[in-house]
Input
Amino acid sequence: MTTPCIIRGLGHCVPETRLTNADLERMVDTNDEWITSRTGIKERRIAAKGETCVSLSHQAALKALENAGMRAEELTHILVATFSPDAVIPSAACMLADRLGITGRMAMDISAACSGFLFALETARAFVTLHPQAKILVTATDVVSSRVDYTDRSICVLFGDGAGAAIVTAADAAAPAGSGRVLDVLLATDGSMGELLTIKGGGSGTPYKLGEAVRSDFFVQMNGREVYKHAVRAMSGICKTVLEKNGFTKDQVDVFIPHQANLRIIDAVGARLEMPAEKVFTNVQKYGNTSAASVIIALSEARAEGFIKDGDLVLLGTFGGGFTWGSALVRF
Ligand code: ACO
Output
């Protein structure tokens, strides 16, 4: 039995630097019409020198703590979902805890590519079930630009950098107004599809020797068409399943937040779920695909902008490399 959990604070942070389609036209053989019609993306935010997974996570975490009316010292667990930590060792979570000025807490990274936020949210629910007093910082952050080859036009137009954060605790009487009750999270993986979306270079299977030049395997490699097909099928399937499992119809969903990979995927998933366009929140136009951060940035932004209102039932869906995918239901 899972202890009922709430999201009691949300925050997000994106770098100031914008990379527009016009900028990309000057870098590779592409154009605004191709990018817009294939992806819906107009610009993305790119980390400046010194902006990292940990620094962006830190900014998002401070906002989520403020939103929750909590101090960092109250946190018991720190989770960072990312594929682009500042270093292999120490983990981004240990570095983030240090930056927040807290020691002696459990802190760890979670790797599930673009589904990272939901994998971390479910991990937080498990910790709350084990430790009902837990106050958990869940951040999902990716500096995708650190693993993008900006001479590869098929990849560099798609991605951006950013961070989102949520404070997760047991649902108690002291829950602040506006908290979101996590009703369910479903997760899935299929490693047999792993080769369709990879970053292998630098891993122990594809190590680099001292002095060796970086190869293309250091950067995101993807079979876009195949990823597109599986993303649409898996995300719509798991979103239907979480609704059925919890006894909701699609009409009871007030807001749908899909992984912000590109508008064509979002539209195709929305069509399969028969979700009216006005219920679907999108910000991929201005941020591109921020990987693990995508749905938590969207959730935080949608709540801050009033797109999600008190009482709304929110459906989240993700899909990413691995393959990994998931869905969640949150009642605000
Ligand atoms: N500008 C101009 N032309 C381009 C560009 C570009 N940036 N990139 C590729 N092209 C060209 C290709 O070279 C190809 O040319 P050719 O026909 O002469 O060989 C042509 O455009 C068509 O290429 P396709 O790859 O077939 O284009 P497609 O219509 O499939 O769209 C896209 C590509 C946008 C990547 C699509 O496959 C897609 O959305 N895939 C999903 C991938 C994704 O979002 N992944 C993110 C990570 S996983 C996730 O988050 C879900």
Summary: The chain has a mean pLDDT of 97. The longest strand covers residues 161-170. The radius of gyration is 19 Å.
